[in-house]
Amino acid sequence: MIGTPWPTIRAVLSEIAREAGLRFGDRAVVVAADGVLTYEELDRHADALAASLAQRGVTVGDRVALLLPSGGDWVVAAVAVSRLGAVFAGISPTLSVPERSTLIKLLRPRLTLTDPDLIDGLPLRSEIATLQPGSRSIELPSIELPSIELPSSDFLKNRAAATAENDAEAVICFTSGTTGQPKAAVFCNSQLRAIQSIDLGPHADQVWGGGSPMLASTQFAHVGMSTKLPWYLRMGNTLHVMARWRADEALRLVAQHRISTLGVVAPQLALMLRSPLMDSLDLSCVTAIIAGGAASPPALVREARRRFAAGYSIRYSSTESGGVGIATAFDEPAEDDVQTVGMARPGVEVRIADSEDQQLPVGEVGELQLRSAAVMQRYWNDEKATERSLTKDRWLRTGDLAHMDSAGRVMLAGRQSEMYIRGGYNVFPAEVEAALLEHPSVEAAAVVPYPDEILGELGLAMICVSQQQRPPTLEELREHGSQLIAKYKLPDLVVIAEALPLTPAQKLDRSAAKALAIELLEA
After folding, report:
1. Can you give the pTM of this predicted structure?
2. Which residue ranges run through the membrane (predicted)?
């Protein structure tokens, strides 16, 4: 290419990566198994990879799948795709081969960028290019290809003008699929800017620097990385990535690099608190814990605050909301924190609605709905699913049941699809699980329905316990829980498991949990 500056385009990620390369130079942006990548190298390698992608026919508006391990190659690829005005979609390598194939078929990308070890099982006749780990580049076919001009400034400006009304699409994030077939949420550049403003404040576009080391706790394909990468680069953060997340290694990295903000999902935090390294490492650097992606049990919040001596903010969001939504304050009183997922963050609206999308009075249970400029544009190639998820005035139907108090604090009651009916009474598993987790011997819990000829459905609790030799009995659990919730909600059956099944995003896999709980019961 290169020798001439890349044309300036409206793609948020491309623009920020260019400026970050100039500002932060040899500072590491990613430290991972595929090597250390600096900000200057990111900008330079993204230019080179973008030229190679253009030679493979990738152009403005095309979709490119990134089936790559989290690390420097992934970030270079995302910026390179953005630099062409194309759309990148991360696919987690932790998914099974059939799951990865399903997402590729759903996306129908112009090209899939992948690690050589991840090719098996990809759909036949799909266009594939491989990146050798740490190479930051693809090998072009040995046959001579015609010279392909990179997009010109005029072309890209015209494209920007033509799409000014709806903005250009930039990122696709797949939902976790815990309650059904995964869907592909589309985010435009305007949504990336909105996410940045919600996370950094209204003057986010003027912020440069001030970042710090970060522990990457999720796959880069997750919405928490794919849509927030622009502002991570703007801050000059350094992302430390583990080939496989393990509590002991995570704690070592926190202590070694003096990581001040711990971004985790609740199951990861529970494993860290269980590690013997908690008492031997100097973790005084941690001043704030941000926990999202899964419920934070009250006992976990209390223990984490005590042992880390840090503030704890519970975050509620979803893929479709752009990873932003509701939060508790770091210094919120503990007695409030354990009851609520917080209030709407600045720039986000929240309401509790009935089946007709009408707002319900304070205290009534209904569907939690969010609205902000960060909410996805649509689902890719699924108009009906988009209409089911977004109202005409762009409120996002989350599928979660909740109620709100007069101060605007939101209390979750479970998912609509998870509710079961016991003897004519509606029971929401999340509420029962929260009560079970208050028992001092229970470390994790999942409640699922079990068929019954008399009551219709019974509550079957699957729990993980701290003392395998002396687990709590069903009677003990019911006695303890009766002080917190109505007796009809308490579990009728209980089984003990070594661990609960989780999705790659570390959320409870309810379908797998139900199958495992019934298998343990009937064994």
Report:
1. 0.81
2. none
